[in-house]
Structures are given as C-alpha cells and as structure tokens.
Write the structure tokens for this entry.
Amino acid sequence: MRYIFIFLMIVMQSSSMLCDAKKKQEAVDTLKILSLRGDSCIAAYNYYHASIFYKQAYDLNSNVTMARKLANVYRKMGRNKECASLLRSIPSDSIVYNDIRSLYFAYSSMSNRDSLLFYGDSATHLNPYDSEIVVSMASYCNDNNKPLQAGKICSLYLFRDSTNLLVLRQYGYSSYLLEDYSEAYKTYKKLEEKGFDNYESTFIMGISLAKLHKNELAYDYLLRAATHKGFKDYISLHYLGTLCLEMGKNDEAVIYLSQAIELQKPDSSLLAILYKEKAQAYYNKQNYYKAAKEFEQSAIYNPDDPITYYNIAQMYGATGDKKKEKANYTIFLQKSDLLKDTEENRELIKRVKKGLTRNSLC
C-alpha cells in the first residue's frame, strides 16, 4: 500500500507540473499572439488597436520589450506622459539610445523644458549626427527666446556636417534673432542656392540686408516676401513700405503702407504708426495736405501723442490754412505735459507758445 501511495503522489505531482507547464506555455503563446497582433496593427497604422493588444501583453508580462512597444505606440497617439512613464520604468542598465530618443520627443511634445533639454543633450552626446533631434532642440530654443543656445547646438552639428539644410535653417534663424544680420544673410543665401526659396528666407534676407544698409537688394527680397504672401501679410508690407520711405520711393511707400493699414484694422496702436509713416511719404512728396490728413488719422488711433498734433499744424501751415494750424498747435500745447522732459521738447514748447502769442505761428 505504501508503494501505491508513493506512486500516486508521483503521478499527481507530475500531472501538476505538466499542468503548470501547459499554463506557462499558454501564457507565452498568448503573449506572442497579442504582440504579433499589435505589430500587425502598427504596420497598418492602426495605433488604437495596437495600444490595446500591447497593453494586454504588457499586463501579462511587463518586460522591457513590451514596455518599449507600448511606449512607442503611446507616443504616436500623443499619450506622451504614459510613454515617458513606461520608458522611465526600464532599468538604467537596460536603457538603449532609442529609449533616450523617445523620451526626448515625448517631453518635447509636452514642452517640458528641463526634461527635453536633458534628454536632448544626452541623445546628441551619444549620437552627434542625429540631426532630427538637433533641429528639434534648436527650433525649441529659437521659439522660446534662447537663440544663443540654438546657435551653439547647430554650430556643433554643422562642424561635422555642413550639408544638412534643416540644421542650417535653424542656425540662420538664430543668427537673425541674435541680430547678426551678416551671418543670417549668408546662411539664408546658402539655403536659397539649394532651392530654399519661400516667405521666411526672402523676408529674413530682406530685413538683414536693410539692417546692413544694402537697401536696393533688401527692397528686392522684401518685395519677393510680400509676393509670397500675395500682398496679404501686414509685416512684410509694413517693412517694405518703410524701406521705400527711406529710399525715397514715396509713391510705393504710400501703396504698401495703405495695404498694411487695411490688413491691420482695427489695431489702434499699429495703425497710428502706419498712418504716421504714410504721412511721412506724402510729406516727402511735398503733398502737405494729404500728409496732414494722414497725421489726423494717426491722431484718431493715438490721441495722446502731442507730436502728431504738432506735425498736423506744420502741414496745415505749409498749405496756408492758418486756422487749422493754430487749432492743432493749441492741442499740442494742451497735451505737451505728456512729452518727456527733455531740452529738445522744452525748446519746442517754448517756440510754439511764442508763435501763438505773436500770432505769427512761426
């Protein structure tokens, strides 16, 4: 009997072991099937169902492979917080370059400054030729008022590879933001020679050339920039108009500034400036009546600028309209306490008062 009992025990243990082995094999098979289904969904760009299969597989076995697969699909779905959490759960001795890269893009999408810069620096240190991360980091820095850092990031890359146009573009833009207009122009000129011809390149080259006092060439580029936008872009029209004003192209200045005014309505602060610039163009053409009218428009949008009324008075004085000249000098004096207390302004006020007292309006 004792031998029979031992035999039965051995049979039962063997049966239990076989059952456990079968369950383990079933779990392995299930894990494999779920992973393969997820892979098929990824191949079909079906990230929703891929995330379901990968999550089920991860719940069965939270190994590093499944953590990476699930994190990858979460990032594609914009679930960046969950992606980062999964990747950070991977033991440090199992972290590979793609994990760091994925962490960078997850934190970049969340605009988590400290983390994205940390993982970005880590990635470019491990692989300095990863231009996608270099461009992304530089773009972030340029867009967040850190052009000096963007320039350094790009310079390190361009020292190794000067052919990458996307990195070169970020470098050129950082140079422009840093007001290094010579470097900005040279960089965008290289981009232009490689076929990079759009609003951004023509506008930045135009502004850079204007700052370098190369107005004729600047005019050509700013005109191209305005053309790229179908003459419906306030910024390019404004700069083009003011450049024409500086170059003595007064008829064109009036046209472009008028277009800018129409686009900018009803922004009062900018309209006041635009009307004043348009008045300057008419003044340069010695059309004092129209200049007065444009200054009056400027005063409507910024009624607390005393100098505008002084200019209106000057223009009407030039047309011989003494009544309007005197009226605007009077308004100027009424608002003169808004002027900065400088020697020049004190002298101007004194001169206007003297002219009104003598009724000579000199």
Notes: The first helix runs from residue 2 to 43. Residues 234 and 260 are 5 Å apart (CA to CA). The two ends are 136 Å apart (CA to CA). The mean pLDDT is 90.
